Amino acid sequence: MNTETLRVAAVQLQSQDDVAQNLEECRKLVNAASRDGARLIVLPENFGYFGDNDGKQAVAERIADPGGPIQLALSDMARGAEIYLVAGGYPEASAEATRPFNTALVFGPDGGLVDSYRKIHLFDVALQDGTSLSESSGTTGGAID
Predict the structure, then answer these.
(1) Strands 113-118 vs 124-126: parallel, antiparallel or unpaired
(2) Is 101 in contact with 122 (CB distance < 8 Å)?
(3) Poorest-confidence range of 18-22, 83-87, 110-114, 132-136?
(4) Is the pLDDT of residue 34 over 90?
(5) Which residues are registered as beta bridge partners of 80?
(6) Are 74 and 85 in contact (CB under 8 A)?
(7) If I label 88, which of 14, 43, 132, 142 is the partner at 20 to 30 A Cα–Cα?
(8) What is the rounded CA–CA span in Å between residue 106 and residue 108?
(9) Which ranges of the chain does DSSP label H, i.e. alpha helix?
(10) Residue 29 has what pLDDT?
(11) CA dihedral 24, 109, 41, 80 (to 10 degrees)
(12) Consecutive H or E run containing 3
């Protein structure tokens, strides 16, 4: 029986509302994980942008138009490190401009987009202290195909 080990890395970072800075930090961490032998690297949800809804709408990209800065950076990271890269969730433009999808992307070692997934179950909660969090107010849920 032939067994191979697949080294996986889960990247953690504190994303803010500066896409370029977040992507540069992702690049550094992906390259470090790759140098340590990871062949599959996973970025967290909101890796590219974490801020208000207006900013999220402004940076939303269409998958059908892979020339956006987030997708280009992810493709370059995967190709440059020759790894599979799972990008936990980024704002994908939807038909409702004020509510982008929260979409995970998977890129292969050649830099090509392997697949994508639009988050279906959005995070809405009302806490006992009166705090209310509503991902669905600024995000369109995906659908089961």
Answers:
(1) unpaired
(2) no
(3) 132-136
(4) yes
(5) none
(6) yes
(7) 132
(8) 7
(9) 19-35, 53-59, 69-81
(10) 98
(11) -30
(12) none
| pTM confidence score | 0.91
Q: Is the pLDDT higher at 135 or at 54? A: 54
70-92 pLDDT, tens digit each: 999 999 999 999 999 999 999 99
Tokens of 77: 């990271």
Model confidence pLDDT, tens digit, residues 105-119: 999 999 999 999 999
With tokens 């067994």, the residue in question is 3
Cα 45 to Cα 37, 98, 128, 135: the distances in Å are 23, 19, 25, 13
DSSP-assigned states of every residue in the chain: -------EEE------S-HHHHHHHHHHHHHHHHHTT-SEEEEEETSS--S-HHHHHHH-B-TT-TTSHHHHHHHHHHHHHTSEEEEEEEEE--SSTTS-EEEEEEE-TTS-EEEEEE--S--EEE-TTS-EEEGGGT-B-----
Amino acid at 62: R
